[in-house]
Amino acid sequence: IPPAIAIEQKNNVRTTRSTVGTITEINDFLKVFYARHAYAVDPATGEEIRPDTTDSIVARCAKEFADEPVLVLIPVPVPDKTPADEFFEFLQQQGYLRVLIGGELLRTDEAPPGDLPDLSGEVLAVQDRLKVTNRQRTRLREAVERALALGRGRCLVGSADGQRQLPFTTDWTNPATGFRVRPPTPALFTFNNPIGACTHCRGFGRIIGIDLEKAIPNPSLSIREGCIVPFQGERGGECQEELEYHARQRGLDLDAPYGDLTPDEQDWVLYGERADPEDAWQNQEWYGVKGFFDWVETKAYKMHVRVFLSRYRSYTTCPHCRGARLQPEALVYQINTRTLPDLWQLPVCDLDEWCADLPQDRFDKTSRLAFTEITSRLHYLREVGLGYLTLD
Question: Is the separation of the CB atoms in 189 and 330 below 8 Å?
Fold first, then answer.
């Protein structure tokens, strides 16, 4: 007699938000794992953003300023139009003897230079001056701890000549650009929670909108033959003439089938010459098929216009999150250059191999438990032949 197979009965509540990841509970463990191990990336510069600690700051200083004299600096905000002499007196009362202004060290117990203008923004107060050596490591640590406490989580360490400075912060902020992200929490990485769900599609990844592909149902037709259906009636006749005019100006072949146009040419037909169709129209440029529908949407209070638009509506990918389902604050977090939606869209086989490459020796107890649950479920899906599925 072959061995029996025991299957646990479990009644899952399935909704329109349900995915392979939610039903297998892999998403629940992934959001915990990302909240503990992901790092943020500044979208403008590509720099990693991690909260600095005293240990990380001391280690960075030992690497960047080995055997060099440095200044541990505290950024002190200055009210607008504050006279230098008044602010120097205030700093002296607070116990700060030196400040760094314009790369020059000034004493607060002496009158400020006559050519020093009224201060504004921030002034760097000197917490300590020391040489970065193994013998001075404890003193450097104490100075950094004190500077972070007085600077509300911010401090700088720079060379004694003031030419090179490294900013540090204990927040999820890029101190070089000021770009700030929300701290990673499990709720930030779930589309079933308003904290993490995209505010436009509410975590569905799709919205009901105009499907531009429906406007060109037959790509074998050319622009001159009327491949863009909404341009063939009274409402779009003028748009057809403008499209042909601007296409000739661009050098586009009006008799070539739409499907034979290059991706850039098709993109020009659909979206026009500017990101904002209104700007394109104002500058007498081609505003795109999308610009036409944007204009028609402004007349949607009329019944016949709503009927017209209904022919071209369908579920489309959310243009704000691009189907990722999460808010932008969650999409800046990565592990090994991959965001969480990137993992949702990987086949289970590829995701299992990605997990195998992670350095498990750096995991704490909670992370190791979550990682074990993730890999065991992925392995099970592969064993039953579902390795081609994606979590999304």
Answer: yes
Of 131, 97, 101, 121, whose CA–CA distance to 113 is shortest? Answer: 101
Q: Give the list of residues 6+ apart from residue 23 with CB closer than 8 angstroms, or none.
A: 12, 14
Sign of torsion over alpha carbons 213, 215, 218, 221: negative
DSSP state of 193: S
Residue 199 buriedness (CB in 10 A; 0-12 / 13-18 / 19+): exposed
Nearest 5°: the CA angle 199, 202, 206 is: 110
Q: Which residues of 335-357 are buried (b: 16+ CB within 10 A; e: fewer)?
A: beeebbbbbbebebeebbebbee
Confidence of residue 355 (pLDDT cuts 50, 70, 90): very high
Q: Which residues of 292-331 are buried (b: 16+ CB within 10 A; e: fewer)?
A: bbbebeeeeeeeeeeebbeebeeebebeebebbbbbebbb
Amino acid identity, position 326: L
**Residue 342 and residue 22: Cα distance in Å, rounded?**
16
Helices (H) then strands (E): counts for the chain: 14, 11
pTM assigned to the model: 0.66
Q: Is 181:30 a contact under the CB 8 Å cutoff?
A: no
What are 24-46's pLDDT values in tens digits? 999 999 999 999 988 899 888 88
Structure tokens at 27: 């998403």
